[in-house]
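Deliverable D4.2, example record:
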Amino acid sequence: MDLLSEHSPAGQHVCADLDGRPGSVTLARRTAEAFLAALTRAVPPGGEDTRDSVLLVVSELVTNATRHAPGPLTLCLTHLRDGVHAVVYDTSPLLPRPRTPDLARGTGGFGWPLVQRLARDLRTAVRPDGKEVHAVLAW
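Output generated by the structure prediction step:
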C-alpha cells in the first residue's frame, strides 16, 4: 500500500526543510504543532493523547536524524482518512535500530522504542541520498 494514496478529502499536507542542526527539532515541533492545530479545526482527533503522540513521534524522528545523519533533513506531515503520516528524509543510509537505553550517561536509546510503540505503521527505506522513515499514527 502506498501510504500517500489515502489522503483525506481536505488533503492537508506540510513539509519543512531543516538544516539538521539541534534547532531543527524545535522547528519540526513547531511545524507539527501548527499542522495539528489546523487539522484539529477540520477533523478533531480521536483520542485525548492523539496530538501528543504525533508530536512525540515527530520530535523523536527528527532528533534521531539530527543525531545520526549529517546535514539537512525534511519533515513531511499528511492527514490520512484516519491518521497522520509523518515522514523524515535524512542523509544517512543507516536504518534506525534499537539500542539499550542509557539512564546513567544520558546517551539515549529510548526514542526508537517509543516510536515503534506509538506508530500504527512504521517503515523505513534506503534512498540513493540517505533514507526515509515513515510513521503512521492514529488521528
